[in-house]
Amino acid sequence: MKHNIVEFLSDEAQFIKIDRSFQRKACWSLAQRRRFMKSSLKRRTPYPIVVADIKTGIKASVGDSNSMQKFKDLQDAGYTMISLDGQNRLETYRAFYNSEFTISGEFKGADGVVYTVKNQAYKDLPPRLKDAFDMLSFDVSIMKHCIYSELHEIFVDINEGDSLNSQEKRNAIMSWISGYIREFSEIEKNSKLLMRIKGFDDQDVSRSLDAQWYAKLFASLCRPNRYNLTSTGLDGFYKQGESRNRSAIADYSEENVSRFEEIIRMVYNAVFSRSDTGTQVTQRQFWALLLAAANVYDSGERIYDYISFFDSVVAADRSLCSVSADDFANAQRQHTIDPEQNSEPVRSHYYFFWASNMNKATDRMKAKEKLINFLEADSQYNNCLKEPLEIVAK
């Protein structure tokens, strides 16, 4: 059914629930939004907005009390529909008509005249060009009689050809861990911590790579020897809880959650120990800090000097990488000189390889053992775990 965009935004859009239990984030860049609005004016955006009807969903949920209750809760909150596809398009329309971004280029107005605009928001456009945008319409496809518990599957099916990434698909799994990791990654402090890792940016966050990062950390801490943090490994970590109570999944226990949150808090304190802006770290250094913090937690110790903790861990990781790389290079030279007496070295036997391959459980454990052994022999590291004398005196 065709709807005028302006009228739909004014009269109906607020009744559409964006359900983050399966719906991905709005992730279009400014450039994508601008291209989309230009295409819209040329009537070259044929894809409909797809929503699920709540009223008929309630009727279809007889015999499924969880689905019925979820629908009724949304209905009581004033919603009539749940978004299944088109969130980026709808959000782009909303932002455009609210003059939240500008457009540039040549656009045909309602009077047939081609207007040239440069970095102009909707409110500042020539009147007849505004009229042309105000006349735009789009299709809304309403899916009726859908059961809530099936919406995540419908969402994935609709978007199968629309390049949902692996984490966006995991977010749609009806598992307790999906909601927990998504909400944890969006807490301000945790988002702030992620932005101190070199290579991460806002676009990564918009495509749920923040959730993927914290899912990897949680899984790695949960069962260090078990989880390979590949796409398949993370899928299994999520799917074990699909349509099951949290209490039935040992990995999702309160103990594991408390341990995970405390270790992340320790890493945060280390990264932000010098200033409010935090110290930027590489992914490899972040993992070193995580492994060291986990060891502190599991040993029942406490970090009293986070600056010294940060410096000693980063220095240890850097030294181990440098020394192991030199050892590997020397072994290569020896092999070249006398291959009969010296076997060819294997990269996977050295710390620099393990430290850059944290997705593999066995390499992660080897790196941790080497790192902790190094740190335990370091006086600066040991001192940061000792209670200051002035505290003892009190």
What does this structure look like?
- A five-stranded mixed beta sheet has the order 1-7-3-4-2.
- The chain is built from 20 helices and seven strands.
- The chain is of the alpha/beta class.
- The chain has helices at 5-11, 30-41, 54-60, 65-76, 87-97, 127-134, 148-158, 166-171, 176-185, 188-194, 202-206, 209-222, 231-239, 254-271, 283-298, 306-337, 351-355, 361-376, 379-384, 389-393; strands at 2-4, 16-17, 49-53, 81-85, 103-108, 114-120, 137-143.
- It has two domains: 1-161, no CATH class; 253-393, no CATH class.
- The chain is globular, with a radius of gyration of 27 Å.
Count of distinct structural domains: 2
Number of beta-strand segments: 7
SSE string, helix = H, strand = E? EHEHEHHEHEEHEHHHHHHHHHHHHHH
Low-pLDDT stretches: none
